[in-house]
Amino acid sequence: MKNVIAMAAVAGLASAASASGVKMYFTADASTVNVGDTVGWTVSVTFTGLSSTGYFGGFTGSFLASDNSLGTASNMATTMNHQAVIPTANGADVNSINVFNSALLGDDDPSIGVFYTFDVTADAEGDLSYGASGLATLFNSDFIFDQAIEFTSFPVNTDTVHIVPAPGAVALLGLGGLVAGRRRR
Fold it and tell me: What burial letters (b/e) apply to 163-176, b meaning 16+ CB within 10 Å?
């Protein structure tokens, strides 16, 4: 009985070690910006559990802002080849992303980390961060007909950008307060 339990435990560890996974990271080039300023975002991935020739297959879906009314996305670009659909911006959200990496097309770069960049021009005060909704894929090898490993749920690590009023706006508000106080007298 002890041997059966030990064999089951070893088999469980082996399957856990071979499990594959993907994690997405959103990194901003600033931690605080003023309303009207632009912040650059870089999106990268890491993955585990693949053979030495395994690689990130791509992503289809959306990058969702914590509050899409805080800004306007622009300059959306991928560092991967074969982008099939031009993305769209809805406020700070980036939608209709379709980027991929494929051995079938002769592009199976296992070194891809950063796979997407975009800018957001801050429109309002608040804290801006990102999540992802969609399908991320991995391929276990560079065989051209390798079956994709698909993930609709994966961990996301994101920076948070604090959007504050522009310094001139704060000065104008203060000046407005002084004028209003003076009129009351």
Answer: beeeeeeeeeeeee
In 3-state terms, what secondary structure has residue 94?
strand
Give, as one character, the DSSP assignment of residue 140: S
Structural domain spans, the chain: 20-184
8 A C-beta contact, residue 54 and residue 18: no
CA 17, CA 39: separation in Å to the nearest integer? 38
The 10s digit of each residue's pLDDT in 104-123 is 766 777 778 899 999 999 99
Q: What does the angle CA 116 – CA 120 – CA 125 come to, to the nearest 5 degrees?
A: 140
Q: Cα 89 to chain center, whole Å?
A: 14
The whole-model pTM stands at: 0.80
CATH number of 20-184: 2.60.40.680
Residues 6+ apart with CB under 8 A from 83: 98, 99
